[in-house]
Structure formats: structure tokens, C-alpha cells
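Encode chain A's predicted structure.
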Amino acid sequence: MAKEAEEITNEAELLVEAAPANDTPEVEAETSETKEEKAEEKSTAKAGKRSAKALKEAEEKQAKEERKAEGVDGEAESKPKQPVKPTRSRLERRGKKFREAAKLVEKGKTYTLAEAITLAKKTHTAKFDASVELHINLNVDPRHADQNLRDNLVLPAGSGKNVRVAVLDDEKVAGADLSGVEAILKDLEKGTINFDILIATPAQMPKLGKYARVLGPRGLMPNPKSGTVTTDVAKAVKEAKAGRVEYRVDSTGIVHIAVGKVSFTEAQLLDNVKAVLASLRANKPASVKSTYVKAINLTTTMGPGISVALSEF
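Encoded structure for chain A:
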């Protein structure tokens, strides 16, 4: 028995010697990993751009952009470049009738008033009775009060338009389509406008202040400069029916005005154009010392433009 016990003891001693002394390297490895994790935790903030969530989102965004760039480059390489079609000119993009009419107008040539009017009637392409328009480019600066041209005149041959005239007055005026303060204000209250020109006396103007936002944008607000605020209401109605027109220079220094209809005779159109040009000459600002008119063009609705010689002014 003593011999057996001695053998067991020897075997136990051998097992102890064969076993590793300790697991210190594993502990050290775990400690180093823990230190790295703690260092990473310290490098990130709890919130903001340096937070773990923000850093992760930034990495995902960068990876997405890289994938997108790779995809775009791949598509660009796979797809051959398409030939670029030359841009068509403005005339080529217009309708067939317009292109045919434009052939009658010689490019770069200026015409006399009589020639331009004759040509405008020939190049008329619309199916309706179109307006004949005059566009005058003036050497003025509308930002200056004295150069902000605005006037009205009665065209000798009329405007060719059937104008509805309303008079803000209790008394009935001959030739007016609508009159009466109560009736007109009641329609304005509803937003109904049954007139093209509104004429008022100075005493009635305060009543229209409430409707300035309705009338102003439509150009219907009575104004002394346009002759629609006057004490002689009967004369204003007569002139409006006879073909009184108003013109005003736009922000680029150009006056646009209709001088009649295509159905007018050439003589009637010529008289109307001369009347407009005479009004512009009379209203030339004193501060404009150099060239007053830079260009004159005559055209019809939906028709090509015709350049008029400046000598006609």
C-alpha cells in the first residue's frame, strides 16, 4: 500500500510540473484589448461630430459616395458620347407660316414708314384682325423721374378696339357704357370688372382707394396723367371712345403701343404712327442731349418685326 501511495504522489508531482506556471500572457492580452477599447471610447465624444453615431454615419456616407462615383465612372466608360446636335436659330424654331412671312422682310434693311406698313400688312399671318404694334427703343433711363415717359393721345384713325367706358359719377354721361357710384363700387366689392376704362372726378377718387389693389395691377386705376381723372367727364368719355391710347416707357427704355388694326387702310395706320412719333418728340426729356431714339420696329400680332429708318422720326 505504501508503494502505491508513493507512485500516486510521484504522478501528481509530474502533472504539476507539466502544467503551465500561470496564464499571465492571456491576462496581459485581455488587458491590452481593454486599454485599446478605453482609448477608443476616450477619442469619441458622447454627442456631436465626434460621437460614435456621428462617426459611423460619416463612414457610411463616405462609402456611399465612393460606390456612387465608381458607378458613374463605370457608366461613363460603358456609354459612348452622343453627338451634340447644333442649336437651331430662333427663326427655325418658329412656325411654317411665320418663316414664310419672314422671307419677305430683308435682313439688315431699314424701311420707310410707308414701306414698313405695307410690308406689315403682307406679313400678317394670324386668322383674326391682329393689332399693328409700334416698338420704339429710346435712349432714356426710367429710373430718373424726368426720363420716365408717360403720356396719352387720341389716335386720328382710332384704335380699332371696342372700348367699354365706365364713369364713377351719379349723373349719366352720354357715350358711357356704365355709370353710377353705387353700381360700380358694388361690382368692385364683388371683384367684377365690366369696363376697359374707368373715368372719375377728383371728388370721387377717395372712394376708389379701397380698390387700388384690384384696379392698379390691371391698369384701370384712374390717373390725371392718363386723362381719366378730370372734371370734364363728357370730353374724357368722347376721347376714350374715339381711340385714346396711353403709352409708358418700360424698365428697359422701350415704348410698346398698338397703333391700329390690320384691317385699317395704310393711310390710317400712317396717320396713327405719325401721331405717336410726334407725341414722343414733344415729350423728349431735356436731360437727354445725345441720340434720343435708338431703334424703331413695326410688327403685327404673331408677325415678324420690320425695322424702320430712324430718319422717319
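The chain has a mean pLDDT of 81.
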